[in-house]
Amino acid sequence: MSEHPYDCLVSALRSHGCRILPKRDSQGRDAVRATCPAHHDRNPSLVVTRDGETALVKDFGGCSTTKVVGALSLTMADLFSGPRRVPVAPTIVASYDYVDLNGVLVAQKVRRSDKSFRWRVPALFTAREWKWGLHGSSVGLYRLPELAGASTVYLSEGEKAVDCLWALGLPATCGPNGAGSWSSAWADDLWNQGCRSLVIFADRDAAGAQHAERVAASCDGLGIEVRVVDLPGLAHHADVFDWIAAGHSVEDVLAVVAETPAWTPERVAAERLAHRRTRKREWMRSKRANDRLQLPVDSRMSGVDHRKSEREASTPVVDHRMSVSVDCGPVDAPNVLLTHHRGQLKKDLPGDLHGSTPSDPSGHSSTRAPSRLTSARLDRFRHRLAADRVRDQRQDRETQERIGSENTVVGVHFDTRRATGAQTIVTPANISAGTARETHFRHKGTRR
Question: Which residues make Cβ contacts (< 8 Å) with residue 434, sequence separation at least 6?
Fold first, then answer.
């Protein structure tokens, strides 16, 4: 039995003359501390730990593991036990020949065992058979010469699906690099080969849908009827090859194609618009369900200005507002809606005062169920509004005491653009009557 890499490394440190000290590992593994052989080390900074079938090396003095192992005349492979892994080169699983209209081989696309693809071209002037890469060669559609005289052509994204369709007796082709590699010149090649009807089998993903739309748009105006087939029951990221391999026959393929309407730009635009509207409705529904909460509160405790509330209530309400009515008991004065939105309070008049609830801009009454709120939460809202009313009353008393028996300016407004302004004069008689006298001035108090 071969020696464990940990024991081999400790023996190499001991033979190199390094000072070795035992170390307690937190996980109960064998470990030692030693002076680093890669640099002058007064205190042991190298830690070697047994970890399963390997040895862990860490130098806290700054040396890398490669440098430490090299100083001991070892390699990184000596830190691991067992046979070394030999990388296996991927093998060629399938090859697809791309030829021109004369049947001359232009390039070959190979699929390897690691599911990768590579191009290679014939090596004309060397002893080798192939040269990897395209080397400037231009490739077109797969199996294009075989489409001569075929009025209906089936298009997929991969060569494997094309060969599968040909095995069913359906003339098919594809682009050289799958989705996203379509050229409008290839639509002309299909027309020149006699194609008058193109059936597209796109992969079930976003790239496949975009590829199908791009191909259909390139055929628009050439006289080629296009059908983009949506195979029923096709899994995500699957293609027509997977659908046929699941047990469907050529009759099933032709039946699905016959039920598919012809592609038109107007139909695609309508479907895209309907999809956007559906997504918008779903988003609005989720916003309406989670965004806002409105509670009716007794206006006698709020101390709000009803004229200001009426102006706010007359403003059009956006769609994402939500109103939930709560029964707070009978009150004499009209209720005021206290809107709770992201921790902020906003006061509005209820919607029934102007014909509709704030939650429904169309004018229909809301049919949502009442919100179940605890009495403690309602009491907190009522106490907050009562505190606002007490504060407003205190400010009114302070204003009256400050005014006294003389005329007092309590409000000044100045428009800097027009150089005009206005000031409000309040007297004790005005306070009792609820009126005020307003004067206008221009330029630094010049009255007019």
Answer: none
> Is residue 238 helix, strand or coil?
coil
d(CA 50, CA 83): 18
* d(C-alpha 161, C-alpha 78), whole Å: 48
Find tokens 């989670």 and name the residue.
Answer: 290
Tokens linked to 96: 């697809």
314 φ, ψ (degrees, to nearest 5): -80, -10
Total length of the chain: 448
Matching residue, tokens 């038109």: 264
d(CA 363, CA 317): 11
Distance in angstroms (rounded) separating the CA atoms of residues 359 and 352: 11
Q: Which residues pair with 47 in a beta bridge?
A: 33, 58
pTM: predicted TM-score of the whole model, two decimal places: 0.48
Nearest alpha-carbon partner for 155 in 69, 224, 66, 109: 224
Strand partners, 99: 105
Nearest to 219 by CA among 264, 250, 157: 264
* pLDDT tens track for 373-389: 567 777 888 888 888 88
Alpha-carbon gap, residue 354 to 360, rounded angstroms: 12
Long-range pairs for 69-74: beta carbons < 8 A, 24 or more residues apart: 70/38, 71/16, 71/36, 71/37, 71/38, 72/9, 72/12, 72/13, 72/16, 72/37, 73/12, 74/8, 74/9, 74/12
How far apart, in whole angstroms, are the C-alpha atoms of residue 423 and residue 438? 6
3-state helix, strand, coil in the chain (%, to 5): 35, 20, 45
Dump pLDDT digits (tens) for 179-193: 888 999 999 999 999
In single-letter form, the type of residue at position 102 comes to N
